[in-house]
Amino acid sequence: MGKKAIINMLSIDVEDYFQVSAFEKINPVSCWPEFESRVEQNTNKILDILSAYDIKATFFVLGWIARYSPALIKRIAALGHEIASHGYAHQRVPTQSRSAFRNDIRQSKQLLEDLTGVAVKGYRAPSYSINPDSLWAFDELVEGGYRYDSSVFPVQHDLYGSFDWPRFPFSLQRTGSGDWMPGSEQDPDCEIFEVPISTLNRAGCNLPIAGGGYFRLYPYLLTRVGLNQINSREERPFVFYIHPWEFDPEQPRMKNAGIKSRFRHYLNLDKTEIRFTRLLQDFSFSTIDTVLGKRFTAESNSTSVVEGVCEFDQSVSAKK
């Protein structure tokens, strides 16, 4: 299967095996320094694979990782990948107070910018946890200087989901009551842009298809067919995500975690790397910032379109 003309968005959520939401009840942040860190070796494995295929990706990095492994973050940036924020301590948005969330996203952004010297434009909430009950998070992201968010997952799930929100990137607009709602796909003057995790729509139902545990759960052929339908039938780029710990079948086991959490976390870890390399052969990828064709700056809300990638309406570039 040859590569497709459409350039898709590849994202890596940089967190260690003991920091995932599935283990948050048994591994509080205070005990993280006690664990063997494996994030550097696993992220470097991904970087080497991407270099072999000459592909750039967006790395959503935990601030905690940046503090303990600064050389890793510098290497990611030096290789030309986009650095974005995954927050500081991998706390789901609804579990935080608004002030705690504000400090979390600003601390992470500052750390990453100090390490790389490049403005951080994007944010992704741990476990895609911005939902209709925590829309205030967008206010904090705008005030914190973020230009796009990639936290909305339009599915139904026990930990996340905004199933009735759009499936493809869109501008976010404030309502008269000060809340937020989806806007158009092509508003270059929006305060913040949303990049949802990709889903496959069947009979009015959104099915998760683009990464993480679903990538390990489904046979690769099913993933490839589903993603290809987004490219070929809908003629849209998709957003794919993966974590460094998913490339590490030898990682220590959390034996005191629940059965469901262990199943989700450990299923088919030994298949991730080979499936990932097949994915890179079957589809074309770049960073979220590049594929969107947006160039957000701290000084202005203006945007520009990167020629020849995402098929946004030409009126966007006309406002360049």
Written account of the structure:
There is one protein chain. The protein has 320 residues and is an alpha/beta fold. It has one domain: TIM Barrel (Alpha-Beta Barrel), CATH 3.20.20. Helix content is 32%, strand content 14%. The chain has eleven helices and twelve strands. It has helices at 39-52, 63-68, 70-78, 98-116, 136-143, 212-217, 220-232, 259-266, 272-282, 288-292, 314-318; strands at residues 7-14, 58-61, 82-85, 122-123, 148-149, 170-174, 180-182, 192-194, 199-202, 205-208, 239-242, 284-286. The strands form three sheets. Strands 1, 2, 3, 11 and 12 form a five-stranded parallel beta sheet that branches. It has a five-stranded mixed beta sheet with strand order 4-5-8-6-7, covered by helices on one side. Strands 9-10 form a two-stranded antiparallel ribbon. A hairpin with a 2-residue loop joins strand 9 and strand 10. The radius of gyration is 18 Å and the shape is globular. It starts with 6 loop residues before the first strand and ends with a helix. Mean pLDDT is 87; it is low at 294-320.
List the helices and strands and how they pair.
Blueprint: E1 7-14, H1 39-52, E2 58-61, H2 63-68, H3 70-78, E3 82-85, H4 98-116, E4 122-123, H5 136-143, E5 148-149, E6 170-174, E7 180-182, E8 192-194, E9 199-202, E10 205-208, H6 212-217, H7 220-232, E11 239-242, H8 259-266, H9 272-282, E12 284-286, H10 288-292, H11 314-318
Helix pairs in contact: 4-5
